[in-house]
Amino acid sequence: MDLPTAWNLDDKSYLSVDSSRLRLNYEGLGENNEDVGAIRANHPIPPHCKLFYFEVTIINEGKRWDDDSWGYHGDDGFFGFSGTGIPYGPLFSTGDIIGCCLNFKNNTVFYTKNGINLGIAFRNLKGTLYPCVGLGSQGGSIEVNFGSRKFKFAANLR
């Protein structure tokens, strides 16, 4: 089974992808929930790999962060949906590197910020899972590292 290595050009909305298929720019207006950009990786994460980690560098946070998403939010540090989730980690912004580790040995997920483990975000992983991101802020731009470069998070992930 193949590992995720780049963004899937056929599975995206309101985003442009550079020639490396790793850097994204938000192309929507960022004015409502209907024009939020999203993309997922070219392959699902194979559970037999036991641990899967990737990092996203926030190149530009854009004009505003959208709080109507599910995941680790940069604008309020919550993990959940519509800003109504539970407090999870610190805010993040331009220049920060956010990592995500899926641990299929104990079915948990944790995030990192600039190489620091923020603790378990949720448990009970199941189903077919893909790395994905969502952007909804004019000027927003990120770049993903699926392992082609050294990670900011230095722990032994093997």
TrEMBL record:
Pfam families for the chain: SPRY
Taxonomy, superkingdom: Eukaryota
GO molecular function: carbohydrate binding
Record-linked InterPro entries: B30.2/SPRY, B30.2/SPRY_sf, ConA-like_dom_sf, SPRY_dom, Ubq-SigPath_Reg
SMART domains from the UniProt entry: SPRY
Residue intervals of the B30.2/SPRY domain: 1-151
Keywords, sorted A to Z: Lectin
Entry protein name: Concanavalin A-like lectin/glucanase domain-containing protein
Biological source species: Gigaspora rosea
